[in-house]
Amino acid sequence: MAGHAVESLMDKITEKIRGHDSSSSSDSDDDKPSKVDAVKSKIFRLFGREKPVHKVLGGGKPADVLLWRNKQVSASVLGGATVVWVLFELLEYHLITLVCHISILTLAILFLWSNASTFVNKSPPEIPQIVLPEKYVLEIASALRIEINRALAVLHDIAAGRDVKTFLTVIASLWVLSIIGSWFNFLTLLYIVFVLLHTVPLAYEKYEDQIDPIAEKAWIEIKKQYVVFDEKVLSKIPVGLLKELKKD
């Protein structure tokens, strides 16, 4: 009896130890995803994004086209832009001339088809009546009005001397844009931007784990240089004095 009692006591102790080990291991397994998520959340992401690249680009069909989710559609869009650039830039075709020639050709084909259908016993072409909905026009106009008012408000704050950082950023951006504009005309610059939109997001989405560490180092260096620039230049600008003079 005593030996049986000792054996049962040892079995209970063993079961408790095993149960404790399994619970601790399960707890550690449960902690792993949270630790992984915490590490992922601390990883530097370009532009401080927390969403996938597809969501950053707005999602939907435009993002699908830019990220080549449907290769045929993306290739068609990029190919169409290339054809337009070749026509207007390399062949020096003019927009009004192209529109007029396409309209002449389209109207001539439809006119001849509609009149010839009575002689060849075929039904005339069904030409859809295109009507521009007022709702979409108002939505586009409203969106443009909001963005224009926002830009005008930023320009007003800059002109009033309220934000030195924004002023310097805008001046530097316009200066860089003026230099780039002297290298290319508007159509070529627009085409380059279009090509970059169809290549850079795709490359970044594919190699973001390699690009983000490099971008983090560059961003840290930019912050260091900005601190030096702030101490030597921005801090010496008498913005407060100008505000006091305006109040007086």
Automatic annotation (TrEMBL):
Any Pfam family matching the protein: Reticulon
Q: What are the residue boundaries of the Reticulon domain, all occurrences included?
A: 62-248
Locate the transmembrane regions by residue number. Answer: 95-114, 174-197
Query: Is Transferase one of the keywords?
Result: no
Q: Which controlled-vocabulary keywords does the entry list? A: Endoplasmic reticulum, Membrane, Transmembrane, Transmembrane helix
Would I find Transmembrane helix among this entry's keywords? yes
- What InterPro entries does the annotation carry? Reticulon, Reticulon-like
Known PROSITE patterns for this protein?
Answer: RETICULON
Q: Where in the cell is it found?
A: Endoplasmic reticulum membrane
Q: Which domain of life is it from?
A: Eukaryota
Q: Any idea what this protein is called? A: Reticulon-like protein
